[in-house]
Amino acid sequence: MHPLEITDIQQDLLSRGPILLLDTTAIAIRFVIQLVLDDKFPMLLPMELWLNIIDQYYKSTVRKFVAVRATSISITPSSKMIHCRDMLLDVSSSLNNATAIIDAEDSLNHLRNHDENSQDHNLILAEGPDEIHAIDFPSQGPTSTSTTTAALSAPDYLFTAITVPDIIARLEDGRCWVCRGRRWICPGCTGGVAQKFDAHMGCGVNLACPLCMGLDFMQEDKLFLQKYDWDAPPVEEEEAREAGISARLAELGYA
Hints:
Layout: E1 2-3, H1 12-16, E2 20-23, H2 24-37, H3 47-60, E3 65-75, E4 79-89, H4 98-109, E5 124-138, H5 147-151, E6 158-160, H6 164-171, E7 184-185, H7 193-196, E8 207-208, H8 215-227, H9 235-251
Antiparallel strand pairs: 1-6, 2-3, 2-6, 3-4, 4-5, 7-8
Helix pairs in contact: 2-3
C-alpha cells in the first residue's frame, strides 16, 4: 500500500470504489498538530517539547486502522475532501491458493467494477455502522517555513493500493492460517498447502510466507533459496536477504 495523494482524488476513486485503509492513530496525531499550529492555541510548552511528545507518542503507540470506501468527494480551491464509510471485511480466511490472492487484491482495488459472480466477491461482509469520516487534503501545507513548523508535518493517514498482506497486518492482527504468525514456512512440510501457492520446495529452509508476506516477496525469496540449494550463499547476499526480510516486516508493521 502507499499513501493516497491529493492527485489521486478523482472521480475514478468513486467509480472504482477501492478499499482504502485509514490510520486512525495518525488522524489523532494530525488533530494535535493542527491545534499546536493554531495561533489561538495556548503554547504552554516550547515547540521543541511538543515535537518530542508527538514523535514519541506516534512511535510508541500501536497504530489502528479501519477499512473504508470513498462515498463522495468535495473540491474547493484550497482543498479536496473525501467522505468515507467504514467497511467490514473478511479476507484472509477464504484465501487458499495463489489465484484467490490475486483475485482478492483485484477485488479490493476495483470493487465496483468487479464481477459480482466471482468467488471472492464475499470479501466485503457489509458496510460498517453509521461512521462517516470526512478527510481533508489541503492543496498547500503550512505557509510557515520555520524548521519547527516543517517538522510538525502530519503522518500519512489514508492509504490505497491495498494488498492481502496489508489487510492481515493492519486489520487482522497479523493472524495468518498458513504460517501461524511466524511469517515463514518450511515449504516441504505443509501437507500440500505450499503447492497451492506455488511455494513448494524441499525441507530445511525458511521461506517467506506467501499469504502474509505476499506472493511476489515469496517468489523472490524462493528464487534465492533455489539458487543456493546446494551451496551456502555468499555472506553479502545472505545479509542482503536478511535485510530485505527485515524491511518487509517493518513495512507491514511487524518490526
